[in-house]
Design goal:
By secondary structure, this protein is α+β, with helices and mostly antiparallel strands. It is built from two helices and ten strands. Helix content is 12%, strand content 28%.
């Protein structure tokens, strides 16, 4: 059986509040930059185009209190870009490693025994599907291997 996936970029409403306030949820001013090209954008799950304006914010994928609620730097568009348009499809820009996959239970407990490193050039989606097929895994966070920055989350699509 093939697991249907649901891809979660940063929630557009949450990001709209950050943009409107000019500060991330941790009080840091939004920092604007000119893209060098290729920076991963967590709002639309694309890569920045050289010369376009991008914003750096501190972000935690958890909205609840949790000892695993790390805050880290992420790039987003400074204005509404429409978000990730295909949540039932794995983002092409992030299909191959390297990546770190962190597995979490429904209560946000990290399931260390399932955390996985996907090597350079390996299929990330296949490893995400393998993890979500584990009965105790509710969500998988994809992170950059070296920087450890949050990229996006994936859950089973229960619709």
């Amino acid at each position: 059986m093939t697991t249907s996936l649901r891809v979660h970029a940063i929630d557009p409403q949450r990001l709209a509040r950050i943009r409107a306030s000019g500060r991330d949820e941790h009080g840091n001013a939004i920092t604007l930059r000119v893209a060098g090209g290729g920076e991963p954008l967590r709002c639309c799950l694309g890569k920045a185009i050289r010369g376009e304006q991008i914003a750096l914010i501190g972000y935690s994928p958890f909205e609840c209190a949790s000892p695993w609620a790390e805050v880290g730097p992420v790039f987003v568009h400074p204005d509404d870009c429409g978000g990730y348009p295909r949540p039932s499809a794995f983002p092409e820009q992030f299909r191959v490693g390297p990546r770190v996959l962190r597995a979490y239970a429904a209560d946000t407990t990290m399931l260390y025994q399932h955390n996985t490193i996907v090597a350079e050039g390996e299929d990330v989606e296949a490893q995400v599907r393998r993890l979500l097929d584990q009965g105790d895994v509710a969500v998988v966070h994809l992170r950059a291997l070296v920087e450890q920055c949050f990229t996006f989350a994936v859950t089973r699509d229960l619709r």
